[in-house]
Amino acid sequence: MLKPLALLCGLFLAASASAQPVPNAPDLSEPWTRPATTGWVGSGLGAATSGFGLTTNATLMHDSHIGTVRIASANRDFLDIDFCFSYCAEDPDGGVSDLALLYGRPLLATKSAFASLGTGLAVVEDLTNRNDARYLVGLPFEAQLGVRTRFVGLHVYGFANLNAARSFAGFGLGTTIGLHN
After folding, report:
1. How crowded is residue 153: how many other Cβ atoms within 10 Å of its Cβ?
2. What is the reported pTM?
3. pLDDT tens digit string along 75-93?
4. Which of 31, 68, 114, 137 has the lowest CB atom count within 10 Å?
């Protein structure tokens, strides 16, 4: 009884030692490989230098390059926040918002977590005088930190804009939807 079992085990070991790898089989030695291109949209509500802050962004990441289009807004009154980037603020003190194009790099990009920093160029709308909106160029900054599943995530989004009239900064807690990994 033991001889046939030993012979069968020997044949199995000899066959497995000479086996060729399966063509196009996935490499399971690495637990996860980030796809070359991912993208998501997000929105968040939080605090800003002049009260409440609201952000919306669309982000595309290709390899280790990140491009983001963002609208960030800061206003002292949440109900009058100027998120529509023109003509909707009724606050006599006005709000400030920007429409920014940013380039960044990931600091962390795993299957379940993400962190990045970016900067770029923005058009800033200053509504200090609600009857006379001022538009100027600003230098925007962003920091993204989040946890995610394949299609949905939670993130903290930090934003800032340096400009000649009314610089502002803030952060928001929000959600993201898209192809994260």
Report:
1. 22
2. 0.71
3. 876 554 444 444 444 445 5
4. 31
List b or e across 24-58, with b for residues whose CB sees 16 or more CB atoms inside 10 angstroms.
eeeeeeeeeebeeebebebbbebebebbbbbbbbe
Residue 39 tokens, joined: 């993208």
Contact 65, 93 (CB under 8 A): no
Block residue for tokens 């390059």:
65
Residues contacting 1, CB < 8 A, separation 6+: none
Q: Which residues of the chain have pLDDT under 70?
A: 1-35, 77-94, 129-131, 180-181
Count of beta carbons in the 10 Å neighbourhood of residue 64: 11
Q: How far apart are CA 61 and CA 38, in angstroms?
A: 5
